[in-house]
Design goal:
By secondary structure, the protein is mainly α. The protein is built from one helix and no strands. About 95% of the residues lie in helices and about 0% in strands. The chain starts with a helix and ends with a helix.
Length: about 50
């Protein structure tokens, strides 16, 4: 019975880690996209001026 509870806790922990992994991945992608957009805008301003 105790082993079952332990495995359930491990599964819950793994699911939580997976969720955090996805959040971090999405955050990194969004930051990278924002950086790329900012860089492109700077390049455009440089070209236009």
């Amino acid at each position: 019975m105790q082993a079952l509870g332990g495995s359930q806790a491990a599964v819950r922990q793994r699911e939580k880690l997976k969720r955090w992994g996805w959040l971090v991945l999405i955050w990194l992608l969004s930051v990278g996209a924002l950086g790329a957009v900012a860089w492109l805008l700077r390049r455009l301003q440089y070209v236009l001026h």
